[in-house]
Fold:
Amino acid sequence: MSDVLIFLGSPRKNGNSEVLAEAICRGIEKGGDSYEIVRLAALEFSPCIGCGGCDKTGHCVLEDQMIPLYEKIESARRVILASPIYFYSITAQAKAFVDRCQALWNRKYLQVGKGVWQQDSDRKGYLVAVAATRGERVFEGAILTMKYACDAMGLIYGGEFSVRGIDRRGEMAGDLATLARAEEFGRRCLD
Ligand SMILES: Cc1cc2nc3c(=O)[nH]c(=O)nc-3n(C[C@H](O)[C@H](O)[C@H](O)COP(=O)(O)O)c2cc1C
Structure:
């Protein structure tokens, strides 16, 4: 199992959020830790259907490529969701993934109900996000979603690495100063 699990939320291959995530991965590697990248847009999985099946069991009734991810999430020390901002939130692919974490939310709160849940303070989640505009509030929706996703995944929200004013494909790759900062973020995210 990898120390850091990175979910790519963009439907765009080699897009800006992916370039940023790759810089973070270089930092993770330099820090001597391991990572695994999961490209959500390449997976076949359904959005949550709200059937309530996981309410009593903590397990999702759907049989698709989301299922193996639950175990990976539970054993990762860090989970990073890297997504561009779409309409002041994360992408549809990333949101479908977050919604499917409802099963983990139920799994956790079933344990809370039995008094056996224990928060591991060394399990953290981060949002990595890129937006075209420079609006002060452009990341607020995504941050709020990721905070609640972390709660479901049993992670402490560790913060975000967000970049404004990046739009065209290839633009992120040209911002070497930000990529250097992202690498440093990756190197330190397991501290
Ligand atoms: C459907 C769609 C919605 C978007 N909505 C926003 C938005 O609300 N605010 C913003 O600043 N940028 C928005 N953008 C721009 C993307 O966040 C930007 O192009 C980003 O760099 C794309 O990252 P990627 O290459 O990783 O996909 C939107 C782009 C698309 C395609």
The domain at 4-188 is CATH 3.40.50.360 (Rossmann fold). DSSP finds seven helices and five strands in the chain. The two ends are 18 Å apart (CA to CA).
